[in-house]
Amino acid sequence: MTPALSLAGLRFSYPDGREALRGLDLIVAPGERVAVLGPNGAGKTTLALHCNGVLRARAGSVTVDGLVLEDDTLAEIRRRVALVFQDADDQLFMPTVREDVAFGPANLGLRDDDLQERVVHSLAAVGMSDAADRAPHHLSGGEKRRVALATVLAMHPDVLVLDEPTADLDPLGRRELAEILLGLPMAQLVITHDLPFALELCTRTVIIDGGRVAADGPTADILADETMLQAHRLELPFAFDPRTAARRHRQPG
Amino acid sequence: MGAGHAHALYVHEHSPVHRLPPEVKVAAAFAFAAAVAVTPREQLWAFAVHAGTLAVTARVGRLRAGFVATRMLVVLPFIAFAFLIPFVASGDRVDVLGVAVSREGLWGAWNILVKALLGVTVSILLAATTPIPDILRGLERLRVPAPLTTIAMFMVRYLELVAAELGRTRTAMAARGYNPRWLWQSRPLATAAGAVFIRTYERGERVHAAMLSRGYRGAMPALGHPVARARDWRVGLVPAASAAVIATIALVAS
Amino acid sequence: MHAPDGFLNAGTAVATGAASAGAIGVALRQAREQLLDKQVPLAGLAAAFIFAAQMFNFPVAGGTTGHLIGGALAAVLLGPAVGALVVTVVVVVQALAFADGGLTALGYNVLNMAVVPAFGGYAAFVLLRRVLPRSRTGVTVATGVAAGLSVVLSAMAFSVQWLFGATAPVPFDTVFVAMVGVHTLIGIGEGVISALTVGAVLAARPDLVYGARDLEVDAPRRRIGTRGFVVAGLVVTLLVAMGVSQLAVDEPDGLERVAIDQGFEESARDHALDRSMFADYATAGVRNESVSLAVAGAAGVAVTLLVGTGLALAIRGRGRDERDAHRAPERTHA
């Protein structure tokens, strides 16, 4: 089966010389949800920006459903891979929610009724249909996050890359987001510091450190390995036991 | 040097004025202000008619007189200046309440006063009945170059965020006892402003990345907003047309 | 400065409107390559910063406060073309959406608050950098002096506009002394805050300061256009001098002499002023017209020269940007 997303040997340095990616390999199967964990400065956000070619690697390749990222395929790759940014205010730059959701599909050439239909469906998918005519800066943190998700769902992507999606969400907002993400069929790469969220959403987890994949395995196993978590400056929340949590999670309700 | 104001003037209402397409309102506001500006100062009746037209427009737009009056205070420094003119101006002197002031100066003061007040009322009516993004769209329809309106769109979107960031830094400083009273104590403030500039710039880079991620290739897409019809123009330009007629009569009469 | 409607006469409003539109047109053309790509959102965010900075009070003396105007600061941070566009957007949105500044006053408000400070301030900045050491301190000091000067330039520009478009009998001398005097004080605050702000940015992200780009590159500094500046300056000065001398011819000293001899001084004076392009008001009652015209002329030359130099620098800057673009990798996301 063709992987939804395949990153091979990615190397990238910032102009100031800092090496952010040092030969990173990662393969995500269609429909698979993978959590990406790692300490600050491990290269997680840099990795996200490589998935759709906002940053271009010095070496290595990005392949999305068999399509290799090159200058000619950039536009199509950006349609296929959707990025949800860490700060929703960066993503919601248009005057109203409706215009913001329409921005992506309009760039794909959609107009009039087709465009409005995309907007309506995308907002419905995140439960924000009523917010279409509101200004983004008047939304709550949770609402902003869901609208940000709608803006990329409107592109009909095959891969969703989320950078710290639960940052500044209240518990209820976090729960609503988890439910929406669990209901989406496409492959998802969830970059997060929120280990319980990773466990709830993703069966598989990779730890990134120093610009490379340092560990890759079932989320429950990785979270149970305290030595490994400590080695990468990760820590479970107080009184959180991944084994019992995983068991509880598998039982419906 | 009036300071900027954080809050827009828009008043959410459903009125015929609110419903007019923005390009009509922006064009009408400019036309009205121009008619006021060229009305000769001696034609007092003409200014009364202009004021009446604006009052009716405000009424149709469901704006409260108190709201408009408070917002007019923005021209206060210039009103103060206008009141100074008769004293510093040259020319014949007349007695007003026992003080000798310049006759020409009085006319000059009246001219600035009445035109500033009518002009600011026009701007308030426009801003109170039109959300800022619509004003920008109106400008774009009136052929203002797209880079300017797009820069303005981003500015309006992020103004509150940036102002809030500056405000938070200020609060954080005050919380640690920083209470500058002299210009040479302002280094920490300027350092904070520099830091906010850097954060603002970096946000700009992230916004750009978010735009690229959704297929932006250097031009904002057309999102298909309705365009003004001939009827909108006919209705919307009524106050401005009346002001133009009044100004013309006043010019001929003077 | 946000002047309201009716502050200057209609002719001056139209003329300054045309001048502003011309300068903004040049700025748009020069900034086109930059604006096509990421500069549009960046310029928008920078405009939000300048707008917010104008609401940000700094202490002046004994608890009184002032606030930034930001034209020169924008030009040093973003370059003269983008800087002028950004401040123009701020001024226009303040007039349309915040009712701050008259709609028919936009011509002179944009000229005095955006075009003159951005282009004039940037020209002063570049000239100062020629004589100051090529270091962060040099850039900071140049920013401060240029920003202070830009405020005085605006006041001078306004006074000269008053000479042409006065709507009240306040003589040019009075307006000039008051405006330039007050704005010299305001300029000190503007200069200090602008310098400290640029200094803070230089310390953390020197790559973001347009006016300090040469500090980053190791290549020897381009000694561009000292000659061009001198030539342009001479041309402008000659043109203005010719204009003034033309007016001086219109000013019929001889005729006036005769008129005085004949006892018609008053009517002759009126006649002479009718023929001049200055507003009656701005020159009426001035004891020594030739001195105040000389002051106005000098102020006009200074403003024109610096703004013209700023425009020239903006035009030349584009060519340099294109060359630099091949060398400097794009910087995103630290």
SS-derived structural category of chain A: alpha/beta
Strands across the major sheet of chain B, in which order? 1-2
User: Greatest contact pair?
Assistant: B-C, 98 and 91 residues
First-residue to last-residue Cα separation of chain B: 34 Å
Number of helices of chain A: 11
List the domain count of chain B as a whole number: 2
What sort of overall outline of chain A do the alpha carbons produce when their principal axes are compared?
globular
Distance between the termini of chain A: 33 Å
Largest sheet of chain B: 2 strands, antiparallel
Number of strands of chain B: 2
Q: What is the helix content of chain A?
A: 25-40%
Helix tally of chain B?
Answer: 11
Q: How do the strands of the widest beta sheet of chain A line up side by side?
A: 6-7-8-3-9-10
Over the alpha carbons, how many angstroms does the gyration radius of chain A reach? 18 Å
Please trace the helix and strand order of chain B, writing H or E for each element.
Answer: HHHHHEEHHHHHH
Order of helices and strands of chain A: EEEHEEHEHHHHEHEHEEHHH
Helix coverage percent of chain B? 55-70%
Low-confidence stretches of chain B: 1-6
Topology, number of strands of chain A = 10
- Provide the residue-averaged pLDDT of chain A: 92
Mean pLDDT of chain B: 89
Structure description:
The complex is a heterotrimer of chains A (253), B (254) and C (334). Chain A has 253 residues and is α/β, with parallel strands linked by helices. Chain A is built from eleven helices and ten strands. In chain A, 38% of the residues lie in helices and 23% in strands. In chain A, 47% of the residues are buried. Chain B has two domains: 16-139 and 226-253, no CATH class; 145-213, no CATH class. Chain B has a two-stranded antiparallel sheet with strand order 1-2. A two-stranded antiparallel ribbon of chain C has the order 1-2. Chain C is globular and about 55 Å long. Chain C is an all-alpha fold and 334 residues long.
In short:
Chain A has 253 residues and is α/β, with parallel strands linked by helices. Chain A contains eleven helices and ten strands.
Write the layout of secondary structure elements.
The complex is a heterotrimer of chains A (253), B (254) and C (334).
Chain A: E1 5-13, E2 19-28, E3 33-37, H1 44-51, E4 59-64, E5 67-68, H2 74-80, E6 81-84, H3 88-91, H4 97-107, H5 112-125, H6 141-153, E7 159-163, H7 171-182, E8 187-191, H8 195-201, E9 204-209, E10 212-218, H9 219-224, H10 226-231, H11 242-250
Parallel strand pairs in A: 3-8, 3-9, 6-7, 7-8
Antiparallel strand pairs in A: 1-2, 1-4, 4-5, 9-10
Helix pairs in contact in A: 4-5, 4-6, 5-6, 6-7
Chain B: H1 16-19, H2 22-38, H3 44-60, H4 65-71, H5 76-88, E1 93-96, E2 99-102, H6 103-129, H7 132-141, H8 146-175, H9 187-213, H10 230-236, H11 238-253
Antiparallel strand pairs in B: 1-2
Helix pairs in contact in B: 2-6, 2-7, 2-11, 3-6, 3-11, 5-6, 7-8, 8-9
Chain C: H1 10-54, E1 57-61, E2 64-67, H2 71-78, H3 80-97, H4 106-131, H5 136-165, H6 172-204, H7 213-216, H8 226-250, H9 253-262, H10 265-275, H11 280-283, H12 289-327
Helix pairs in contact in C: 1-3, 1-4, 1-12, 2-3, 2-4, 2-5, 2-6, 3-4, 4-5, 4-12, 5-6, 5-12, 8-12, 9-10
